[in-house]
Amino acid sequence: MNVQSFGDMAQYLFLRRRSVELNKTLDTLTQEMSTGIASNLPERLGGDLGFVVDLERSISKMDSYKVAAQEAGLFASTAQSYLERINDNALNLGSDILALSSTSNDTTTQEMATQSANFLTETIANLNGKLSGRSLFAGTDTSSTPLESADTMMTALIAEVGALTDVDDIVQAVENWFNDPAGFDAIMYNGSTNNMSAVRIGANEEVNFALRADDDRLKQAMQSFALGALASSDNLSHLSTVESSALIKRAGTELMNAQSELTDVQSDLGFIQARIEETQTRNTAALTSMGTTLNDLILADPAETASRVEEVQFQLEALYSITVRSSQLNLLNYM
């Protein structure tokens, strides 16, 4: 019978090499346990990582769409809240004015005129509204404050109608000022005349916020409040009680028309909000699907990995035991 033996050095090198291999395997399995990602991806995917790369790229792009949709949704909801306040003020004041009897006194007229002036100030403040430092109604010039103050507007309007007493003439003069490029646009509006660029919120979906403070429908609301404010004796002191009352009644009619226009603006914005919500739902579903597919491709099986860790640990312990026993062998102990 032939007995094959190894020298001490050969045995030492064999044990050392085996120890290094097991430790390397244990490190790999430990990494799999901590990251959850399989370490043998090329082998697992047949050497083709292209699909994984494409999936990761698509997920990254979808993540950017998700952020864009969230920002667009916040932008739209904030703008909607500002418009809702203007609409509510126009509806409430318009209704109150039209509910006045034909025998309303000067006190009532002045109260309504004062309220109209206050709502004009609030309207301008709302249209100057910002989100994260960006103006919502200034077009592409989001760093600007789109509108000058209500005092600036009233000063300009009083200069236009200061000598007029006929209600129709006053209303026409105010309307002309709002439509004149040298009027409202030059004196009040500081924003851009270009709408914001469309925002892409999905692979095949984008939304466009074409809302600016110089929109005719928003100008109609300011014009209506301004008409009511002009009925105040502080603004047009030369008007008689009858003329002031007639002007405030006309403002009430204009406010109801403006309220209808504002509702249309809110409806358009609501349609955009609905599109954003629908796109967010689709984006979430797509992200979930792609994430599940990617996980199936690259994630290691925790149970299998844990079992392999235990197996390697057992082999290492056995190897260490053999190494210790081998190091203790000598001729004296044998004899």
Over all CA atoms, what is the radius of gyration? 38 Å
Q: Total number of β-strand segments?
A: 4
Large-scale geometry: rod-shaped
Taken as a percent bin, the fraction of beta residues is: under 5%
Give unreliable regions as ranges.
none
According to CATH, the homologous superfamily is f41 fragment of flagellin, N-terminal domain
Number of domains: 1
Describe this structure in words.
The chain has one domain: f41 fragment of flagellin, N-terminal domain (Up-down Bundle). 71% of the residues lie in helices and 3% in strands. It has 11 helices and 4 strands. It has a two-stranded antiparallel sheet. A two-stranded antiparallel ribbon has the order 3-4. Helix 4 packs parallel to helix 9 and helix 6 (167-179) crosses helix 7. The longest helix has 58 residues, at 241-298.
Outline:
The protein is mostly helical. The chain is built from 11 helices and 4 strands. It has a single domain (53-290), classed as f41 fragment of flagellin, N-terminal domain, CATH 1.20.1330.
List keywords for this structure.
71% helix, single chain, 11 helices, 3% strand, two-stranded antiparallel ribbon, f41 fragment of flagellin, N-terminal domain, 335 residues, mainly alpha
Secondary-structure map:
Layout: H1 8-35, H2 41-44, H3 50-98, H4 106-127, E1 130-131, E2 134-135, H5 150-161, H6 167-179, H7 181-187, E3 199-202, E4 205-207, H8 216-230, H9 241-298, H10 302-328, H11 331-334
Helix pairs in contact: 1-10, 3-4, 3-9, 4-8, 4-9, 6-7, 6-8, 8-9
